């Protein structure tokens, strides 16, 4: 099961964008650019970012969250 965590490796401020990038399996730079664009469209997005940094937990030790192989894992577990 996929879980959303703040990234401890792909972080610039608090790891929210890095965690979202890992969760959606995209480049963290794209998520960061999206946040900047959303911030210029609506400055209240900084509050959303701060709330996300508070609510989303940091990835615990030993949790490997590389979801690039997730579809293969799901297929293997379902027996297809």
Automatic annotation (TrEMBL):
Descriptive protein name:
Phage shock protein PspC N-terminal domain-containing protein
On whether Transmembrane is a keyword of this UniProt record, the answer is yes
Localization, UniProt: Cell membrane
Look up the coiled coil feature and give its residue ranges. none
Kindly give the membrane topology term recorded for this protein: Single-pass membrane protein
Domain Phage shock protein PspC N-terminal per the UniProt entry, residue ranges: 2-58
InterPro entries referenced in this protein's UniProt entry, alphabetically: Phageshock_PspC_N (IPR007168), PspC (IPR052027)
Name the source's superkingdom: Archaea
List cellular component terms (GO).
plasma membrane
Instruction: Please provide the record's keywords in A-Z order.
Output: Cell membrane, Membrane, Transmembrane, Transmembrane helix
């Amino acid at each position: 099961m996929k879980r959303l965590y703040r990234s401890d490796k792909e972080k610039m401020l608090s790891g929210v964008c890095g965690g979202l990038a890992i969760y959606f399996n995209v480049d963290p730079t794209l998520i960061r650019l999206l946040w900047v664009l959303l911030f210029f469209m609506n400055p209240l997005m900084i509050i959303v970012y701060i709330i996300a940094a508070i609510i989303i937990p940091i990835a615990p030790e030993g949790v490997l969250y590389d979801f690039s192989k997730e579809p293969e894992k799901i297929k293997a577990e379902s027996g297809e």
